[in-house]
Specification:
Elements lengths: L11 H11 L7 H18 L3 E7 L3 E3 L3 E10 L11 E7 L5 E8 L4 E7 L7 E8 L12 E8 L17 E6 L4 E2 L4 E8 L8 E7 L4 E5 L6 E6 L7 E7 L4 E5 L3 E2 L3 E7 L4 E8 L7 E8 L2 E9 L4 E7 L6 E8 L5 E9 L6 E5 L4 E2 L4 E10 L3 E2 L2 E10 L10 H6 L20 H13 L7 H5 L16 E8 L10 E6 L5 E6 L5 E5 L6 E8 L7 E5 L22 H18 L6 E2 L15 E3 L9 H8 L3 E6 L2 E8 L4 E2 L5 E4 L2 E2 L2 H5 L6 E7 L3 E3 L2 E3 L2 E6 L14 E6 L4 E2 L9 H4 L9 E9 L5 E7 L5 E11 L4 E10 L1
Parallel strand pairs: 2-8, 10-17, 26-52, 41-46
Antiparallel strand pairs: 1-3, 3-6, 4-5, 4-7, 7-8, 9-11, 11-14, 12-13, 12-15, 15-16, 18-19, 19-22, 20-21, 20-23, 23-24, 25-27, 27-28, 27-50, 29-49, 29-51, 30-33, 30-35, 31-32, 31-34, 34-47, 36-48, 37-43, 38-39, 39-40, 41-42, 43-46, 44-45, 51-52
Helix pairs in contact: 1-2
Length: about 800
């Protein structure tokens, strides 16, 4: 797949070409149109590639003080294969007002990453949303982000009173197949009726004309969704009366009925063929229509037919379509889209996950071991990337309503919330297939819109993929006018013992973008700008987290008094665990990254403690460092690098750093040398982008903290979290009698969490963990994907006596 480059940052060129193609003169050959749109569409897919992320959390209900563990699966949007373009995912926990209460930057590697949130004791009880996305995904809006509801209860604060929502707000929507109702043409009309929380309801409905004559009756098939067949009569208008099972009644008008237009109907035959009819009452001259179909932006069908006696027939072999959702679009003879609908082709292969060797019950502090197997294609074992959570089920537990399979193939490509998405993958029975087709009619495709092309809108990609690491972005502007400052030499340094220095020339709009790969954990960043003609400037750092949010129904959190005992017990257990195992719960894995300085190794190091300590930096350089020439003119020091191997004497000043932060020669020469631990001299010319330095003189202090260095007043110093350090999951081991007899309490309700289970080439892996002192029912939930994009999930239960 082609990766985005700087030449792909704007779609203006191909949009103009596409618009000219689609809106061109009528004498353009039909065959040329079908071929050209096929080619241009494929180019668009490669340019505006899509990404998807799915997040598997250890559970969905938490108490304040617990850890929320998660695994991020990252795939390309067309084939669902693990992707390796973006290297960072952004995870957030949002409250009901979309205010972030926790945020993390998660490192991605070959299609996955993992992280955790410690839920603070200051958090309020309520319903929260966990969402995740990449920098590139921000170009397409928050509807493309992964979202999952999470419930958090803070038992250390008074619980909010349970208030019953007595409102009976009903929403009803109607969706003609293909998009429009046209008088005199029979249409399939899908409907969806939901309550105030977006959940489908039971009801009975009648359709009446303006004379109050009942035309037909209808009722839902599943989740408040269904359809009816209907032929609008010229001159009539129609309203639907819906009576919910609880007695509430609403009246809604049908969509507008057009005098002229096109109606599309799709019928699936038993032999696997799709019959698509396009009916029209347009005047003479509209004799030809074109049909295009794509599966997740990969063109599968491009055909044309003539309209004869008001109808054009297309036959499409279902086997030509990709699995999952396909979009059918009909264009008229003027190359305008006039009808559109979705179709779902059932999946032939999914990742089958199984576990063998699990007993129905175990004693406390006993091992649980079992074998995992992953397979596709008639049981053939395949290696797969899995995550596993094992937790205790109680009155507050909430099962995840979806899985990686239903998310990637369904929820991620439809607008709005899908109620019980797993239902549509439960079987391929006639009832499920009918409900799935109704779902396609009431939810619109959101990954591509032909109208964006036809309207010739200029679209640009503001955000680029973080293909090497995290970007820290900002802007430099004039303090008085706010005008951006272009071509300013700016620098970003990460304070610490590992030297990280990033120079950047600001863009025309004053934008700065620093590629700070391998920056992990909390730290301090320092931004500076080289002396400008006008020193009255301001530098701002922008948050990498999106400030755009989806709009969805907010579900009330109702906690009955009967749950108080469960909450109290859970809170006590959590506090005991934190008291006895706080150190074990706060251990992090040190990432395996290159720790050498940004300019590389191979240059001579001078450890100050190996020499007699002088009282000035000037004496150190003159006495110990033959690579640096010290000059003084008009009371100002000058430093120059000499390369002994090439016998080259540079004539311009080198880059001078203290703990990776650029400092002036005069400032370093007056710095206390007793604070310096090491000096490195780069005797080669160093080039980074638009910056060239005649060597580097790099000083480091003992703690890498700029020990009492006074920076320029214009410098921006910020606490800034890099990529999240991975917390180590801790669980006691009971291998010996002494360990079993330990008097330390073990009140874990999360027995096991592993985000990185890899099955071998035969699809096998072993899992082993130990039960805790808490008795009850436990559930194990597995999610996973293989290298070819086959996804799957599996769960099982056992009891601890």
């Amino acid at each position: 797949m082609m990766l985005p480059t700087s030449r792909m940052i704007t779609k203006q060129g191909w949009l103009l070409l596409m618009a000219c193609l689609l809106l061109g003169s009528m004498d353009t050959a039909a065959q040329d149109f079908t071929q050209a749109i096929h080619t241009r569409f494929d180019e668009y897919r490669k340019t505006a590639l899509t990404e998807k992320v799915y997040v598997h959390t250890d559970k969905r209900f938490y108490l304040a003080g617990e850890l929320l563990w998660f695994k991020v699966y990252y795939v390309d949007g067309s084939f669902h294969r693990p992707f390796d373009l973006s290297k960072v995912a952004y995870a957030e926990l949002l409250d009901k007002d979309n205010k972030p209460v926790m945020q993390a930057k998660v490192a991605l590697k070959t299609g996955h990453g993992n992280g955790s949130f410690y839920i603070p004791s200051s958090i309020n009880t309520g319903q929260y949303t966990l969402r995740a996305y990449t920098n590139w995904m921000k170009n397409f809006g928050p509807d493309y982000f992964f979202e999952q509801p999470v419930t958090i209860v803070n038992s250390l604060k008074p619980l909010p009173p349970s208030t019953a929502d007595t409102g009976n707000r009903i929403a009803a929507k109607f969706f003609p197949e293909g998009g429009n109702l046209v008088k005199g043409i029979n249409s399939k009309v899908a409907f969806q009726v939901t309550d105030q929380y977006g959940k489908g309801i039971g009801f009975t409905g009648t359709l009446s004309n303006q004379r109050n004559e009942v035309v037909l009756q209808f009722k839902p098939e599943q989740f408040g969704i269904g359809h009816f067949l209907f032929t609008p009569v010229a001159g009539d208008s129609y309203t639907a009366t819906i009576t919910a099972d609880n007695g509430s009644t609403i009246i809604r008008a049908l969509p507008v009925i057009h005098e002229q237009g096109y109606v599309m109907q799709l019928q699936e035959e038993a032999n696997g063929q799709l019959q698509i009819s396009v009916r029209s009452n347009m005047p003479a001259g509209a004799e030809e229509v074109f049909l295009f179909a794509h599966s997740r932006q990969v063109i599968k069908v491009a055909a044309r037919q003539s309209i004869v006696n008001g109808v054009a027939h297309f036959t499409v072999d279902r086997n030509k379509l990709g699995e999952g959702i396909s979009q059918f679009t009909v264009f008229n003879n003027t190359r305008q889209p006039v009808c559109e609908r979705l179709y779902f082709k059932p999946l032939q292969q999914v990742l089958s996950i199984g576990a063998s060797g699990v007993a129905p019950q175990y004693d406390s502090r006993k091992p649980v071991s079992f074998s995992l197997n992953t397979a596709v294609a008639a049981g053939k074992g395949v290696p797969a990337d899995l995550s596993l959570s094992v937790y205790r089920v109680d009155a507050m537990s909430q099962q995840d309503p979806g899985s990686i399979l239903s998310y990637l193939w369904l929820s991620s490509d439809l607008k709005g919330t899908i109620e019980s998405p797993e239902y549509y993958f439960s079987a391929q029975s006639p009832a499920v297939m009918a409900a799935l087709d109704n779902l396609m009619l009431v939810h619109g495709w959101r990954r591509f819109d032909w109208k964006e092309v036809l309207n010739n809108k200029t679209a640009s990609f503001e955000y680029i993929p973080e293909f090497d690491g995290h970007f820290i972005t900002g802007k430099i502007t004039h303090s008085g006018t706010g005008a951006p400052i272009a071509a300013a030499k700016t620098y970003l340094s990460v304070a610490g013992t590992k030297l990280q220095f990033y120079p950047m020339l600001s863009g025309d709009n004053g934008a700065m973008r620093f590629d700070v790969r391998n920056y992990y954990g909390p730290g301090e960043i320092i931004l500076q700008a080289e002396a400008l003609t006008d020193s009255n400037y301001t530098m701002d750092v922008q948050s990498p987290f999106s400030e755009k949010y989806t709009v969805h129904a907010s579900f009330p959190l109702s906690l009955s008094p009967g749950l108080q005992q469960t909450l109290t017990e859970g809170s006590i257990n959590m506090q005991v665990q934190n008291a006895y195992f706080s150190e074990r719960l706060s251990q992090f894995t040190v990432p395996q990254i290159d720790t050498m300085p940004f300019f590389g190794n191979g240059y001579k190091k001078y450890l100050m403690d190996d020499y007699v300590r002088f009282t000035t930096t000037e004496e150190i350089l003159r006495e110990y460092v033959p690579d640096v020439a010290v000059r003084k003119s008009d009371g100002q020091f000058q430093l120059y690098i000499f390369n002994w191997e090439t016998e080259r004497h540079y004539k311009t000043s080198p880059l001078v750093l203290l703990d990776g932060v650029p400092v002036s020669i005069q400032k370093i020469m007056t710095y206390d040398p007793l604070k310096l631990r090491q000096l490195q001299v780069v005797t080669d010319r160093y080039v980074s982008g638009d910056f060239t330095y005649d060597g580097i003189i790099s000083f480091t202090t003992y703690h890498g903290d700029l020990d009492e260095l006074q920076l320029d007043t214009k410098a921006v110093i910020l606490d800034y979290d890099g990529l999240q350090l991975q917390r180590e999951f801790y669980a006691p081991v009971y291998e010996t009698p002494e360990q079993v007899a330990s008097r330390l309490p073990d009140f874990r309700n999360l027995l096991y969490w592993s985000p990185d289970i890899q099955t071998d080439s035969t699809g096998k892996a072993m899992v082993r963990f130990f039960t805790s002192d808490l008795k009850g029912k436990y559930v194990a939930i597995l999610q996973g994907i293989d290298s070819n994009g086959h996804a799957g999930s599996y769960s099982f239960e056992f009891e601890v006596k």
